[in-house]
């Protein structure tokens, strides 16, 4: 059978990895897919560099529209990134009846509903394994491997840059700014690291997993997003003393009143495997009612790990290319006419436990006032730590771990606590997840 023809839009780090791995493993990939898969056309603004990378026999153009207009191309791989040009090209490719493979989490998290609807109408596939956790086949696991389950929650370390920074802060006692510079020096963090360190990249990925896990539309605008820029090295140390590590988690959870969708730093018990995922690695925990807890670990970025996911999508599409569109795996795991409208909860309705650090005057009655406010609101304390005040010091750090409470209630208590004259600095609050 004639090889399936692929057009690649953007041959940067991931694109060149796709090209290399497809070539290197050509024979085995063909044996799996049932026919050859060939990149026959590449579009990149830097045509000279692209030509040097792909060699002869592949058409290189500067205008991506030429790839989409080519009737011989069956699948378009979009590796341009961002919401602008990429969105236009993906929509054009779908209109032209091409299947699309993309690693573009931002595009799908924000415009996924429009894109998946268009693809469904046109009877083409949009595959995006590479958009979440790079080389880890988490989309496949959620959409197919765990399809028997009612998924209860997902919690993932889905941004390697921030996990690297947190590991450096813990290992070397570095402050955030110093660890960020190190991440930039090693090429983990971009020159503008905002999307990573502010949690936006992780929230894009959590949004996609949430949609697939619960059969709800992609709703990035409803996600709660908090990054790691305000974390202090002392909180990492105190958490350690209490038996926890701080990780930036992407969490989505089913509750009786709606879906939680949030990204923020979280204390995780050190004894959990996921707490020990260090450096730029990614890991995702999924809890299903039948399977129990599962854990997926691997590289979340990089040329060949991400290429591994892109090529898996190419193979899937190749296998299903001739299948009736109704018999393919639905884009978001659930049949489009069986999506749920369960609401994504506002953060004030999320129930979780907390780490609180208070800078307080070291005098009689301070602890009673603080714990009194918690008791009045029905918030139970799980553990407590007080740093010994240094010689002649009149202030100290008070660290409290609470049991579960609704975030709105905790916010009210924190407002009152902050006003106590003996609380001398802004209170640090970090959420805690037991992931049991
Ligand atoms: N910048 C991301 C990370 C990889 O650090 O994990 C691409 O989403």
Instruction: Indicate the mean pLDDT.
Output: 96
Tell the overall outline. elongated
Which kinds of small molecule does this entry bind, naming each only once? L-homoserine
Strand pairing plus helix content: what structural class?
Answer: alpha/beta
Number of strands: 17
Looking at the overall shape, the CATH architecture of the largest domain is: 2-Layer Sandwich
According to CATH, the homologous superfamily of the largest domain is Dihydrodipicolinate Reductase, domain 2
Distance between the termini: 50 Å
Q: Percent helix among the residues? A: 25-40%
Rg over CA atoms: 24 Å
CATH topology of the largest domain: Dihydrodipicolinate Reductase, domain 2
Number of helices: 15
Into how many domains do the coordinates divide? 3
Provide a brief overview of the structure.
By secondary structure, this protein is of the alpha/beta class. It has three domains: 157 residues, 3-Layer(aba) Sandwich (Rossmann fold), CATH 3.40.50; 162 residues, Dihydrodipicolinate Reductase, domain 2 (2-Layer Sandwich); 82 residues, ACT domain (Alpha-Beta Plaits). It is 38% helix and 25% strand.
Structure explained in plain terms:
- This protein is α/β, with parallel strands linked by helices and 436 residues long.
- The protein has three domains: 4-131 and 303-331, NAD(P)-binding Rossmann-like Domain (Rossmann fold, 3-Layer(aba) Sandwich); 138-299, 2-Layer Sandwich (Dihydrodipicolinate Reductase, domain 2); 351-432, Alpha-Beta Plaits.
- The chain has 15 helices and 17 strands.
- The protein has helices at 13-24, 26-33, 47-54, 64-69, 85-95, 105-122, 138-145, 160-172, 176-185, 194-197, 200-214, 233-241, 303-320, 366-376, 407-419, and strands at 4-9, 37-43, 59-61, 75-78, 99-102, 126-127, 151-157, 224-225, 244-255, 258-269, 281-288, 292-299, 351-361, 381-386, 395-402, 405-406, 428-432.
- The strands form two sheets. Strands 7, 8, 9, 10, 11, 12, 13, 14, 15, 16 and 17 form an eleven-stranded mixed β-sheet that branches. Strands 3-2-1-4-5-6 form a six-stranded parallel β-sheet, sandwiched between helices.
- A hairpin with a 3-residue loop joins strand 11 (281-288) and strand 12.
- Helix 5 (85-95) packs parallel to helix 6, helix 8 (160-172) packs across helix 9 (176-185) and helix 14 (366-376) packs antiparallel against helix 15.
- The N and C termini lie far apart (50 Å).
- The model has no long low-confidence stretch (mean pLDDT 96).
